[in-house]
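Quarterly update, task 2.4: 6-O-phosphono-alpha-D-fructofuranose-bound model.
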Amino acid sequence: MQKTHMTLGEFIIDNQKHFKYSSGELSRLLNSIRLAAKIVNHDVNKAGLVDILGEAGDTNIQGEDQQKLDVYANDVFKSALINREIVCGIASEEEDDFVTIEGKENSHTNKYVLLIDPLDGSSNIDVNVSVGTIFSIYRRVTPSGTPVQSEDFLQKGNEQVAAGYIIYGTSTMLVYTTGHGVNGFTLNPALGVFYLSHPNMEFPEDGAIYSINEGNYVHFPQGVKDYIKYCQEESENRPYTSRYIGSLVSDFHRNMIKGGIYMYPTSAKAPKGKLRLLYECNPIAFLAEQAKGKATDGYKRIMDIDPTELHQRVPIFCGSTKMVAKAESFMAKYPEDKDY
Ligand code: P6P
């Protein structure tokens, strides 16, 4: 039974009992993310007032214009971790390659790597729509005491130690899992404290909300077109409601609470999908499955996909188990679309 008004800090310490050999590094890592989230939140909430709106004039490896807040958020999370010598490496949507963190006396002995999308949905910043941070944590797999290598980042989603997101919305929440369910914490901005507000979050098994950019309809695989038409048919609890914010974290969060499916499939415009496997789809998939939902690429589990490159993209169908299974049943009719 959770204590009322439990803070995130207390929860992280309490949760340490699941890691009997833990040296406390994971707790310190999660606490560093907690601190960075508060700093980013402070500036996201006043983005319209200070000169951090608009594009940073640079583009990231995806060729996307880097919004100033993207770059700022990336720097905040990086420095929160580098200064505390907890991780041996960081991979970020905003960094072309992974960043090696040497740690105490250049010892390269820190245990974890962090993969992060520091500000997802950042194109929404200038129009005051909610955005989010998505993070994923692994143990390094190459020998301790040596510089971190790409293998430490190119791990299957099944190997994640922890994953979560921060949603900077009408309220700011941090939602995360360490493999023992999903818990949500809401920031009290007056106190600067995250409180446990959504214990044991779970997807309803079924739902009536579908989230996809229907503007791309003509470019979708036939299985996706068929499923969208199914959602729109008059029958039982259909037509479903179409809700698409253009911010993955916001759509996912709403669907986890109300039931629903989020889809970003392949298309003629995005032949491998748009979302990145390592720091968007894998953490979202870990959370989905821990919340008794489902996350696949339309054919196989996201967390079974063997990564090949840092910024690789994959299609994703995630949310209520019955809705994802239904979408997959339409995709199964077109096995030629399995490979992307
Ligand atoms: P589109 C934001 O750029 C993002 O990565 C997700 O947060 C969001 O769901 C999706 O892309 C929006 O992409 O192509 O529909 O604008």
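Highlight for this quarter: The first strand starts at residue 55 and ends at 59.
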